Amino acid sequence: MQFPTLADVVGHTPLVRLTRLHAGRNNTLLAKLEGNNPAGSVKDRPALSMLGEAEARGEISPGDTLIEATSGNTGIALAMAATIKGYRMTLIMPESASSERKQAMAAYGATLIEVSKDAGMEGARDLADEMIARGEGKPLNQFANTDNPLSHYRTTGPELWEQTGGQITHFVSSMGTTGTIMGVSQYLKERRDDIQIVGLQPADGASIAGIRRWPHEYLPRIFDASRVDVTLDIGQQEAEEHMRLLAREEGILAGVSSGGALAGALRIAEQVENAVIVFIVCDRGDRYLSTGLFAPER
Known about the structure:
EC 2.5.1.47; cysteine synthase activity; 8 helices; 6-stranded mixed β-sheet; cysteine biosynthesis; alpha/beta; 4-stranded parallel β-sheet
């Protein structure tokens, strides 16, 4: 009997119907539970894809040091994937990330370098580029690496099509590196062009882990705006309130970007009828507990 490895069980995550947060107008609201992946987020998919494809092309080999800038989930997933495949992983991230994220990376054996909150992800990306230029490690570069959206084209998109029996009408996803929305959009649009792809970005002043509004010079090279039909701005309070609603009303403990995705899905539901609306719950909420966002109201 052949037993699966950890890498074999990435993906095939549940798609569940919300039962208490009603979408109205005969709409169906479905949550794709990516926190069920082994390292706890949707980023497990591109992490294994980027390592595996680079290895197949001969660009990296076990024992190499890899360098990546991350806001958290990709770093955790890459740390897991590097451990599975035998690589050393150096991760660069803003100091403002939750302690659970940092500890998870360290638990997998990754080396963590922090930049200031003011430097943010742009500063982390700049430092990664500098270290690679000095020959301190090899890049994966999730922001320009086509193996990132490829993982979602090969796995997430087909899963959603199969799980909805081809009835999906709207796909709602936060936009960070944009790998998820790019890959899923490409797959679904090839199946039926009228499926609406809804991308989420932070409203002015919002700082939501996993959702970004990039300055033009830092816009991910994998991003193609033509693959997103609708873009919604999500506010900080809106995302946090809907994150708590997911936990308290549906029993889904997820992060802030997932709350933003729910908020976006509910907005779409107010405008349509007889729709099957899928949104990505990109990670688990237990890696945000130290932030106090789930603390009891006083």
